[in-house]
């Protein structure tokens, strides 16, 4: 492997285990390197192993994987790290389905692997790992012989590293088990890698909270996707839940209500969420509990200010249709938005509508989405539970 030297400031960051670097951080010219080439990265006193892609359109071009302390080949390093990820997840004994690999947090930048009942879906978004895509697939086939392993490429996530497009592998409905709920996601409506495991613990916390209070009559699951939040509301004792999403998720919602024996206690409305809340306001429809878990409002930390404005607008509309002493759950998956930021948008919204709040609970992402600290870029899930009063 060829060597790459970092500039002094970046080399100090490397010693603190910063794993991503930009061309401006690198002293060596990178023009002669091939996309995905594995390299030795020289720090101040130690050497590391990583891979580089000089064709990256934006973001880091150098990814550090591990310290250079053995003679493992790049493929052996990848398989070793996958083995570590598998061993770590196996300790969560009630996790039947889970995220097996979470990119940088498992020291495999750009690799996402989710394990479902019938599938293992792989997404690879960095050139250094894409060159071993077939070997990664073979490793997972051996690790999960009863499941179908699929390279589930998404072109929009691969274009930043100018990765090639391959023929898409066909899949049928994805079956999921989480918190003893069964889900079926139609291949036609599937998003991202198929399911959002990241709020698993927060959904369970909310359900357990609901079981400790008087039963609520009505609830809403905004941005519902396959209905995970709403199903937890129902099992927590909420009488009836409306699921709202702008995508055509009706068949998915109806199937998942049936799978979990909640037929007749839920209904689906296809609508833009902001329009739906405005219609509720005009019709004087109010609810005991609302969960708001939108897609990321910003893909870049440069647009965080705009994202915060979007959250405040959403919360303002939602708080207007919550009954006195009802509950509001504000969730966020936007990188760069902190728990404090999210809380401030809800507080501002409460001032806008003349209501007072009690913050009852907070949460972050589940154990299969590890992160080093609250400052880590791998930390992105926020959950806030409020009681709302006049």
From TrEMBL:
As one GO molecular function, the record gives: methyltransferase activity
Alphabetical list of CDD domains matching this protein: AdoMet_MTases (cd02440), RlmI_M_like (cd11572)
PANTHER family cross-referenced by the UniProt entry: RIBOSOMAL RNA LARGE SUBUNIT METHYLTRANSFERASE, S-ADENOSYLMETHIONINE-DEPENDENT METHYLTRANSFERASE DOMAIN-CONTAINING PROTEIN
Q: What's one GO BP annotation on this UniProt entry?
A: methylation
| Name by which UniProt lists this protein | Uncharacterized protein
* InterPro entries registered for this protein in UniProt: SAM-dependent_MTases_sf
Q: Name one Pfam family in it.
A: Cons_hypoth95
Query: Which SUPFAM superfamilies does the record match to this protein?
Result: S-adenosyl-L-methionine-dependent methyltransferases (SSF53335)
- Gene3D superfamilies tied to this protein: RNA methyltransferase domain (HRMD) like, Vaccinia Virus protein VP39
């Amino acid at each position: 492997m060829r060597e790459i030297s970092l500039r002094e400031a970046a080399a100090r960051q490397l010693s603190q285990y910063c794993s991503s670097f930009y061309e401006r951080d690198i002293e060596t010219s990178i023009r002669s390197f091939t996309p995905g080439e594995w390299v030795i990265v020289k720090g101040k006193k130690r050497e590391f192993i990583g891979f580089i892609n000089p064709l990256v359109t934006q973001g880091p071009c150098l990814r550090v994987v591990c310290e250079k302390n053995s003679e493992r080949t790049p493929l052996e390093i990848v398989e070793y790290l996958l083995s570590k990820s598998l061993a770590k997840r196996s300790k969560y004994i009630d996790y039947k389905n889970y995220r097996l690999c979470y990119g940088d947090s498992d020291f495999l930048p750009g690799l996402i692997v989710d394990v479902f009942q019938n599938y293992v879906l792989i997404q690879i978004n960095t050139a250094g790992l894409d060159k071993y895509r077939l070997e990664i697939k073979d490793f997972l086939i051996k690790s999960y012989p009863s499941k179908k392993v699929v390279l589930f490429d998404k072109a929009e996530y691969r274009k930043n590293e100018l990765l090639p497009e391959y023929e898409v592998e066909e899949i049928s409905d994805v079956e999921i088990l989480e918190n003893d709920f069964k889900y079926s996601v139609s291949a036609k409506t599937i998003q991202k890698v198929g399911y959002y495991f990241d709020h698993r613990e927060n959904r369970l916390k909310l359900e357990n909270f609901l079981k400790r209070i008087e039963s609520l009559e009505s609830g809403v699951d905004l941005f519902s996707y396959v209905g995970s939040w709403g199903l937890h509301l129902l099992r927590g004792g909420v009488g009836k839940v409306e699921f709202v999403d702008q995508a055509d998720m009706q068949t998915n919602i109806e199937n998942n209500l049936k799978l979990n024996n909640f037929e007749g206690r839920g209904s689906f409305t296809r609508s833009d969420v902001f329009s739906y809340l405005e219609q509720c306001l005009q019709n004087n429809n109010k609810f005991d509990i609302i969960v708001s878990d939108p897609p990321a409002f910003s893909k870049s930390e440069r647009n965080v200010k705009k994202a915060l404005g979007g959250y405040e607008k959403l919360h303002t509309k939602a708080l207007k249709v919550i009954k006195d002493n009802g509950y509001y759950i504000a969730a966020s998956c936007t990188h760069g938005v902190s728990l404090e930021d999210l809380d401030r948008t809800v507080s501002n919204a409460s001032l806008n509508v003349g209501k007072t709040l009690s913050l009852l609970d907070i949460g972050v992402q589940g154990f299969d989405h590890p992160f080093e600290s609250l400052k880590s870029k791998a930390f992105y899930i926020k959950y806030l539970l409020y009681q709302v009063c006049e």
